[in-house]
Design a protein that fits this description.
14% strand, four-stranded parallel beta sheet, Spore Coat Polysaccharide Biosynthesis Protein SpsA, Chain A, single chain, alpha/beta
Length: 154
């Protein structure tokens, strides 16, 4: 990956530690030359768990940096069992992350990374502030199920 350190942002609670480790492993396997800095915004993960995650990351050419978020910031935000308060923390990235970051890729902690991340990292954004990616068409049926589950028109 041409020596670039790719910055990734994740937000999750302690229930997502195991899926996050799977995501990290898939990221490492799909990006064997990768060099990643993982930024974790959280509000309730223990120091023991954070240290264990940092060690896991260091064994996969990754650095984990965590920032604890004050839960009161989103105390009135709607949440559910499946969508905890931590999902909102990505909205705080421009405030909480260092100004020296030029770009960062937000990634859900419970996905499998099956392709190299570098092309996404190198994407030219022009004047756009952000870009988004969705699942490919082979996941159309899953998208329809998710839309129904979320009570959205599809």
């Amino acid at each position: 990956m041409q020596g670039d350190k790719i910055d990734l942002l994740v937000t999750f609670d302690k229930k997502y530690i195991k899926p996050f480790r799977v995501m990290l492993k898939s990221l490492a396997v799909s990006n064997p030359q990768g060099n990643f800095r993982i930024w974790l915004l959280h509000s309730g993960i223990s120091n023991v768990d954070l240290q264990a995650l940092a060690e896991y990351c260091s064994g996969h050419r990754m650095t984990l940096i965590w920032i604890q978020v004050d839960r009161s910031v989103f105390e009135t935000a709607p949440v559910s069992k499946q969508y905890p308060q931590e999902m909102y923390y990505r909205l705080l990235a421009p405030v909480l992350l260092p100004d020296t970051l030029d770009r960062i890729i937000y990634i859900d902690p419970d996905i499998l990374v099956i392709n190299p991340v570098y092309p996404l990292w190198e994407m030219q954004l022009g004047e756009s502030v952000f870009a988004a990616a969705s699942h490919s068409s082979i996941f159309e049926a899953i998208n329809d199920v998710n839309m129904m589950r979320l009570g959205k028109d599809h």
